Amino acid sequence: MSLVAALPGRPLSEAEVAKLNRADPVRLAIALEESGPTEGLLLATDDWVKGLRFLGGAWEVAESVAVESEDDRYEGLRRCEDAIREADGAETAPEQDPSAGSDSN
């Protein structure tokens, strides 16, 4: 079973993220929320970094980056975080009204 498939079908608590940091294959687990349950998660192993989002009752991979060096890992963490935030922003952004900003008075 993959690490991602082993995650529960709900947002992770702070304690669960801390526990992931002590898991064998995980080099780093970072919650994107500052406190409380997280729906955004960065996971790093020796081989990859993944940005995960909790969506519709399951965890989905928003971005995955192969890691060959420590520099790759840090760049991968940044790229994965950006991908999660962009995906979350795209879902919550209101539809633009084409007439907004036009001066029709």
Helix and strand arrangement:
Elements: H1 14-21, E1 28-31, E2 40-44, E3 48-55, E4 58-66, H2 70-92
Structure commentary:
With 105 residues, the chain is an alpha+beta fold. It has a domain at 14-85. It is 30% helix and 25% strand. The longest helix has 23 residues, at 70-92. It is globular. Residues 96-105 have low confidence and may be disordered.
Order of helices and strands: HEEEEH
What radius of gyration results from the CA coordinates? 17 Å
Range of strand content: 15-25%
Weakly predicted, low-confidence segments: 96-105
Number of strands: 4
Through-space gap between termini: 62 Å
Q: Structural class of the secondary structure composition?
A: alpha+beta
> What is the overall silhouette?
globular
Order the strands across the largest sheet as they lie in space: 1-2-3-4
Quickly count the helices.
Answer: 2
The biggest beta sheet, please? 4 strands, antiparallel
User: pLDDT average, as an integer?
Assistant: 87
Q: What percent of residues adopt helix (DSSP H or I)?
A: 25-40%
Entry summary:
By secondary structure, the chain is α+β, with helices and mostly antiparallel strands. It is built from 2 helices and 4 strands.
